[in-house]
Amino acid sequence: MSQMKAIAVTQRGGIDNLQAIQVPKPSEPQGHDLLVKVYATSLNPIDTKVRAGTYDDYPDYFSHCPQLPQILGFDGSGTIVSRGSLAAPHFTPGTPVYYTGSPVRQGANAEYQLIDSRGAAIKPQSLDFIEAAALPLTWLTAWEALVERLGIQEGEDAGLLIVNGAGGVGSVASQIAREILKLPLVVSTASREETVRFSKAMGATHTVSHREDIVQQVRDLKLEKPIRYVLITHTPTAGYLEPAATIVEPMGKVCSIVQEREMDKMYGTEFMSKSLTYVWALVGTKPYYGVDVESHGRILEQLARWIDEGKIKCHLQQKLPLTADGLRRAHEIIEGGKAVGKVGVGIGVDGLKEEHAFS
Fold first, then answer.
1. How confident is the prediction for the chain on average, in pLDDT?
2. Is residue 265 over pLDDT 90?
3. Contact between 162 and 145 (Cβ < 8 Å)
4. HEC string of the chain?
5. Which of 9, 87, 189, 304 is an S-S bond match for 210, by CB 3.0 to 4.6 Å?
6. CA–CA dist 39, 285 (Å, integer)
7. Stated pTM of the model
8. Of the candidates 73, 86, 113, 84, which has an alpha carbon nearest to the alpha carbon of residue 97?
9. In this structure, are residues 109 and 72 in contact, taking their beta carbons and an 8 Å threshold?
10. Beta carbons within 10 angstroms of residue 336's beta carbon
11. pLDDT one-digit tens code per residue, 156-187
């Protein structure tokens, strides 16, 4: 069996456990699968949590994910090498694609990757591979949260509050809210000059600091529209429940993409008195449980059109080379909690040649 280069987690724990190794190259794709030659990936908090062994969005995750060595990388872009018989006909060898992978299959931190074609789309023509790889997981998360879980309708005369508007999900959620759903008002939390500037560039109409009293700051804005929706994209999830319940209008909705152990702080807030709705959004639910898996590809196809039309901006803010050192640095940035937008890792950065990648 032929071998390929990969950067994998060899033990759960620290960043040094990301190691460049040789592993068997994936077999030829079957069914809906595509075999992709990987050119770029991007970092998400799931990468650092799975590496550390602390990922808990699924109670049985570590019983279902690939056993060690596990190849991370839940976003990717590259070119199709071969296709399964059930893959859509427009997925032909040599076609550039971008995609989000399954949480329970080997990831994009390798020369080649088997992916489900139903979670992929042809890469936007106006983006390079690293820019394209920055988008899928965060865009799909934000889309599912706002459109599918919160059920926001285009043109609603109401506002949205986003916790962490400068993060990977928050910065595309702002664009969905303003450019696609045409909401008149998006308030995002941001505490540093660079995050305030980036949040507004991504579509926020107002910002408030999460380091101060959010409720009072929102009141001080004297908004002309009610806040009907809240999207929580950063912990402490429980710490934002009471402010969210106070800020949102009666019959409003709150969605979170993050959880924590202390989730019992809804009692005593206005959640019941206002008849509020609380929902979760987890992008891996569909591939994990095999539900509506085709929707991811459709959403990414539409995103590619919007990107190429100039309607949506890529939120990539930093590029690193696709090497073990580059990935370790990217993990450090995500774990440092100060990342703005997305961190991408790819071939071509700092002159990295294809033959030297994944090492």
1. 97
2. no
3. no
4. CCEEEEEEECCCCCHHHEEEEEEECCCCCCCCEEEEEEEEEECCHHHHHHHHCCCCCCCCHHHHCCCCCEECCCEEEEEEEEECCCCCCCCCCCCEEEEECCCCCCCCCECEEEEEHHHEEECCCCCCHHHHHCCHHHHHHHHHHHHHHCCCCCCCCCEEEEECCCCHHHHHHHHHHHHHCCCCEEEEECCCHHHHHHHHHCCCCEEECCCCCHHHHHHHHCCCCCEEEEEECCCCHHHHHHHHHHHCCCCCEEEECCCCCCCCCCCCCCCCCCCCEEEECCCCHHHHHCCCCHHHHHHHHHHHHHHHHCCCCCCEEEEEECCHHHHHHHHHHHHCCCCCCEEEEECCHHHCCHHHCCC
5. 189
6. 26
7. 0.97
8. 113
9. yes
10. 8
11. 999 999 999 999 999 999 999 999 999 999 99
What pLDDT band is residue 1 in, cutting at 50, 70 and 90? confident
Q: What is the pLDDT of residues 120-138, one digit of tens each?
A: 999 999 999 999 999 999 9
Which sign, positive or negative, has the C-alpha torsion 4, 120, 67, 1? negative
Task: Tell me what pLDDT residue 148 has.
Answer: 98
Say if residue 317's pLDDT is above 80.
Answer: yes
| 250 neighbors 226 (Cβ within 8 angstroms) | no
| pLDDT, position 342 | 98
Statement: residue 264 has pLDDT above 80:
no
Cβ pair 315, 344 in contact under 8 A: no
**281-298 pLDDT, tens per residue?**
999 999 999 999 999 999
Instruction: Answer whether the bond into residue 243 is a cis peptide, omega within 30°.
Output: no
- Lookup result for tokens 């450090």: 332
CA distance 17 to 247: 43
Integer Cα distance of 161 and 150 in angstroms: 12
